[in-house]
UniProtKB/TrEMBL annotation:
Protein name as catalogued: Iron-containing alcohol dehydrogenase
Pfam family for this entry, one: ADH_Fe_C
Domain Fe-containing alcohol dehydrogenase-like C-terminal, chain residue ranges per copy: 187-354
PROSITE patterns, alphabetized: ADH_IRON_1, ADH_IRON_2
Keywords: Oxidoreductase
Domain of life: Bacteria
Domain Alcohol dehydrogenase iron-type/glycerol dehydrogenase GldA as annotated: residue spans: 9-175
This protein's record includes keyword Transferase: no
The UniProt record lists the keyword Oxidoreductase: yes
InterPro entries reported for this sequence: ADH_Fe/GldA, ADH_Fe_C, ADH_Fe_CS, BDH-like
Length: 385
């Protein structure tokens, strides 16, 4: 097992009717800004519930944070935070809203061009406003980690950043708040959590038995729960399991002491930035092809994945790996998520565009061995056509 340090200060408040606990989680004298996305927070009553829980605190709002939150929108929030002397942020929504809130928290006191936070991957964050979250869409795990992703539309760039200063102080997870989500968003959440887990699991063995078994348990739970959350939208237990799996998939535990890949995400980010495809759907496009192309460096873990997750034990090694990758693709497709670039009306031109952006953003030595070159990315993308 590799050396590691693990730190996660986020308090999780999980279960039905837990938004009322905001009253004891947010400082009594805080000047609070609630950040959220579209009209769903208002239509479902969640926003009113949040405001009621905050009581007599001074409350301001910022609406309109998009899926794949944009730098341009977030800087409007930063201006409002500064003008109104906000000292506590509260994200109400899914991963995009929480990611955006992290950026706002870091940018509010940042000296200089705030886009440098993304360019330097968060290494230059020196302070951040405190914030919490009320999660309404299980997917990214942003509610319990120190990372975020922001898109700058003007230059079609989507970059990730991390800092120990942007952990949420707390996150409220009420599975009942997911009942009204569209099936598309739920399916995206299942795939997002699945690929988060795979990025930390399908690398090479380092005798991380606990991490491996934990990751395999999360994958098995998603395979079991994914179809159920789509077929039975009001099944509280299914939604609760999905919500908790998505959080655990990216809160640092399964990645502690083991090598990680993240190449699927880097390619996926460029597809989203260029073609506005849902983040999870870009992951579903890239992952099966990446696993096939990188099968030699991932062979031992792919065979373990085939046996422990998909119960594939017969046939040659290559046949077992092929079947495990096909089962992965089939699982995504069963959720209504297409896994080929052609399904999104993209062809060779898109391959060339994404490769150009990867080169521009320095994504030329990816993967757990840092040997995933632009040539490897080309092979993967062309295999995904």
């Amino acid at each position: 097992m590799l050396n590691f340090e693990f730190y996660n200060p986020t308090k999780i408040v999980f279960g039905r009717d837990t938004i009322a606990k905001l009253a004891g989680l947010v400082p009594r004298d805080a000047r609070v800004m609630i950040l959220y996305g579209g009209a769903s927070a208002q239509k479902t009553g969640t926003l009113d519930e949040v405001k009621a829980a905050l009581g007599k605190r001074e409350i301001h709002e910022f609406a309109g944070i998009e899926p794949n939150p944009s730098y341009e929108t977030l800087m409007q929030a930063v201006e409002q935070v500064r003008a109104q002397k906000i000292d506590f942020l509260l994200a109400v929504g899914g991963g995009s809203v929480i990611d955006g809130t992290k950026f706002v928290a870091a940018a509010a006191n940042f000296e200089g061009e705030a886009w440098d936070i993304a360019v330097k991957r968060g290494a230059n964050i020196r302070s951040a406003l405190p914030f919490g979250s009320v999660l309404t869409l299980p997917a990214t795990g942003s509610e319990m980690n120190n990372g975020g992703v922001v898109t700058r539309k003007s230059i079609q760039a989507k970059l990730a950043f991390h800092s120990p200063l942007v952990f949420p102080q707390f996150s409220i997870l009420d599975p009942a708040k997911t009942f009204t989500l569209p099936p598309r968003q739920i399916a995206n959440g299942v795939v997002d959590a699945f690929v988060h887990t795979v990025e930390q699991y399908l690398t090479y063995p380092v005798q991380g038995q606990v991490q491996d078994r934990f990751a395999e348990g999360l994958l098995l739970s998603l395979i079991e729960t994914g179809p159920k959350v789509l077929a039975e939208p009001d099944d509280y237990d299914a939604r609760a399991n999905l919500m908790w799996v998505a959080t655990l998939a990216l809160n640092g535990l399964i990645g502690a002491g083991v090598p990680q890949d993240w190449a699927t995400h880097m390619l996926g980010h460029e597809l989203t930035a260029q073609y506005d495809i849902d983040h999870a759907r870009t992951l579903a496009i890239v992952l099966p092809s990446l696993l096939s192309v990188r099968r030699n460096s991932k062979r031992a873990k792919l065979l373990q994945y085939a046996e422990r997750v998909w119960q594939i034990t017969e046939g040659s090694e290559d046949a077992r790996i092929d079947l495990a990758i096909q089962r992965t693709r089939d699982f995504f497709e069963s959720l209504g998520i297409k896994t080929r670039l052609a399904d999104y009306e993209l062809g060779q031109d898109a391959v060339e565009t994404v490769l150009g952006q990867l080169d521009k953003h320095g994504m030329t030595a990816l993967g757990e061995h840092q040997d995933h070159t632009l040539a490897v990315s080309r092979t993967i993308l062309e295999a995904a056509l």
